[in-house]
Amino acid sequence: MTNSAKDVALSLSLLALSAVWTWLVIDTIPTGWGHGDIGPRAFPMVLGIILGGLCILLLIRTYLLGRTPAGKAGTGDVDAIEEASSERWGSMILVAIEISAYGFLLQKLGFLIATPILILFVLVIHLRLRSWKTILGMTLGMTLGCWLFFEKLLGIYLANGSWFNIG
Amino acid sequence: MDIFLQALASAMTPMAIASIGLGALIGLIFGSIPGLTFTVALALALPITFSMDPVPAIGLLLGTYIGGMTGGSVSAILLGIPGTPSAAATVLDGHPMTKQGNASIALGTAVIVSVFGGVFSLIVMIVSVDLVSRVAISFGPAEIFALVLFGLSTICGLCGGSLIKGLISGAIGLMIMTIGIDTIDGVQRMTFGSVNMMQGVNLLVAMIGLFAVPFIIEAFAVKTSMPEKSQRISRVKAELPSIGLLGRNLWLMIKCSVMGTGIGAIPGTGGAIASFLAYDHAKRFSKKPESFGKGNIEGVVAPETANNAVTGGTLIPLLSLGIPGDPATAIVLAGLMIHGITPGPALFMNHAGEVYGMYVAVVLAYLWVLGLQLMGIRLFVHVLKIPRELLAVAVLVLCAIGAFSIRNSVFDIYAMGAIGVAAYVLVSFRVPITPIILGMVLGPTLENEFRTAMMLSMGDPAIFYTSPTVLVFFSFALLVIGLQAVSEFKAKKQPKNEVKADA
To answer: Minimal Cα distance from B157: which residue of A?
Structure first.
């Protein structure tokens, strides 16, 4: 995908988002009472309209005037992704699944069971690591280290499972 | 003088020194782990102080506060994930320095300038507590709105080449923070009936998602698609910044300290706005503005000086008027009151000894932080020797713990994931994500102060153009936007001129 095509896709997607946002805001949030009460609707509505306006500007700039803003993803942000390969999108989907599954497992099995399952899955399935020393060291070290440090030493509550409850 | 000597004696007891050191260590640990804030650390430390004498007790709390504020820079510089919102601006140049193999210089500079900013603000506080508190308290909703709007104008400097994309990013950040129960009218906004959504999107959860999740995705993607590139930085040095480097940035440190102290003295502002304003100021007045975002040391000096100068600033309204500037100082206030010290105009008459003891405790806390961090740098930089993908696995678990522990809610882990994936998509479309954070940090204050100002004026917008302070901040904001527009116009014109010259 070229930079211009990316910008067109971005502006159209965000334009749709701003339209849906503004419609939902108008539909669900009441206005103020007047006499200086700005009301809870004003800010989200104005922001939705501003976002839409900016997207239209980006679209005009890219599509009609043929100008693509130079520049990277932004100073200091995660490295600008030079090539959006299928591996990158695949990795993104896998990480989203891993985080969701970890949240679910934390709730059901608790920290001490959910964490080694997550780490094992990431190391063996996602990263295809085959060094058993590293796999065992990471899995047990991270799980027990975090449990001892956060729960036992600092007294921070780590999730207990609703199905099992150990630790 | 006698009172001061007594205070010095009470603050220099082994018990007091140890408790300040313990506080600094706890603060450093909590500040450096994304999601675990020093506010949580203070809440955990408060019960420990119940049985202690006032000076060691307040010293423990102040040590935690100061350690936490400084510790946020460690993960910001090493991993590109800010430990606290105040350290978000430090990522911009601190992390690129790590990539260049200069992590230890960035870390060393960050801690030294932090101590400078903190001690500077303490001196300002001691000298001008009465004057500054009177000026700061005169800031009404309209003035704070104008100040925050000026803070938002710094988005222009964080756009990474495209003003429109930076503004889009900032608008998204502002929109995210409107989700949840409206704090003024109590109305649900964009919650879709979900109980979890009623609390809104937590700033820390969003920050972890925006910075950590894209890092994790990228580390895993590079390992699976290009294993040869997955090795972490091998050139790890443990050297400290030279005196010459610090000397060259002395004027910048003084300016940012003044900025941080002033902003800290205004209740409801805080370290994040101070650090972004200081970063923008440093970039604008730098001899090499083009090198910002690529590992310019000034980009570390400015935000770190300013966010630590905030610590002294926040103590001004806290001690003189009993007004805490942020949740962390609210816990310090609780600690003071538990020990029978009621801040306010009579504080210096009734508890002069304890107040002087606090001043000494702040200096000791900064000395502890300096010692702990400078010793720790040799240890911290070895994190970079860990292969990137294994570091990402550890970051994934730590960030999930951080997100969960904020409200003991699994929903926050899901929110972290969703925001992180959205951030990754935005980065891949070359949209800068730092303005989102700025929008999220400043959004609630911007809206609440605007609405309160309009309520106070019964809907008369004159409140925004009759106050000289408001007009000054509006002018600054316009100036920043104008300067950015001009520099973008010049940058576009330059290649054309070069082409003509080549022809």
So the answer is: A75
